[in-house]
TrEMBL record:
Active site (UniProt): 31 (o-isoaspartyl threonine intermediate), 31, 111
GO BP terms in the entry: asparagine metabolic process
Domain Asparaginase/glutaminase C-terminal: residue ranges: 236-345
InterPro entries in alphabetical order: AsnASE_II (IPR004550), Asp/glu_Ase-like_sf (IPR036152), Asparaginase/glutaminase-like (IPR006034), Asparaginase/glutaminase_AS1 (IPR020827), Asparaginase/glutaminase_AS2 (IPR027475), Asparaginase_C (IPR040919), L-asparaginase_C (IPR027473), L-asparaginase_N (IPR027474)
Enzyme class: hydrolase
UniProt-recorded name of the protein: Type II asparaginase
Residue numbers binding substrate: 78, 111-112
Statement: the UniProt record of this protein carries the keyword Hydrolase: yes
Higher taxonomy: Bacteria, Pseudomonadati, Pseudomonadota, Betaproteobacteria, Burkholderiales
Stated family: Belongs to the asparaginase 1 family.
Amino acid sequence: MQLLLLSACAADVPNASAKLPNVRILATGGTIAGTGATSTTTVGYTAAKVGVDALIAAVPELKKVANVSGEQVFQIASESMGNEHWLALAKRINTLLAQPDVDGIVITHGTDTIEETAYFLNLVVKSRKPVVIVGAMRPSTAISADGPINLYNAVILAGSREAVGKGVLVMLNDQINGAREVTKTNTSTLDTFKAPELGLLGYMQDNRPHFYRASTRRHTAESEFDVSALTKLPAVDVVYGHANANRVAIDAYAASGDQGLVYAGPGDGSLAAAVRPALSEARRRGIVVVRSSRVGQGIVARNGEANDDELDFVVSDTLNPQKARILLMLALTRTTDTREIQRMFYDY
Ligand code: DGL
């Protein structure tokens, strides 16, 4: 993967104002950088086409709220986001946030995996400075494209005092969501990002953030995870549970060398008769197994639908399967002790 670092330091920003915060925009692609054939194309467009300088130039109002500079770190549709992208992004963010002339960071990103990148960064960014991830549900060429206002709000949020220490934030549709609970709930509507039961953290209104909640879980500067010396992450995959489930995918992942497996079971992480022995065998091969749920909300209770103590499984608490995969991956960079890993699922 080639990293494109076309960067300017904050001091290079023309007419930089000492009164305004210095916000760096790291562009990765997605619909916010997408183009459609016509102004009414809102599906079937091409993501990851417009560069960071054009994104910034399209919102001249940014100059009134922050000293903004941009870097094109990569240019991809986010369904293709990989561990190597995450490691490069996290290292770049931690380098920038250690600089006194950077007050906050905005990441422009595709919405398909924005919740995963947000949660990964929530666990590995080593600063209390704001990190805000922003996307769009309509391409930049569409009538009423949402990217420009989302980017404007994200830059204000990233430069705000209120966002300091709140963890990684997802900014779309005037709503501020926390990385741990936010998820994409609709394939195409503007209000797709929600934290259905645990709720959003606040709103952007009248050019400033209004916070009403904060996460109760560890994140960013309080996190024990450090990727600074890592060049790869442990192999962890998710298997989706359903009626008539079988063990084929579990056995294939186990044979492929996975170090961890997340099972997205129906209900409270229930294990079908054909699935339980396969996961138990995977555990006996040293693979750490996390019981999660495809349901999306609620706690997966330890020793509820399965005897986790006896099987030596971990439960995901309220993390959805794709986020449980991220936490398990990072946990495995520190330990294979399932009690320690279970503690991490209750801490983060
Ligand atoms: N390909 C999708 C992505 O890059 C487009 C969705 C979007 O960014 O809104 O995530």
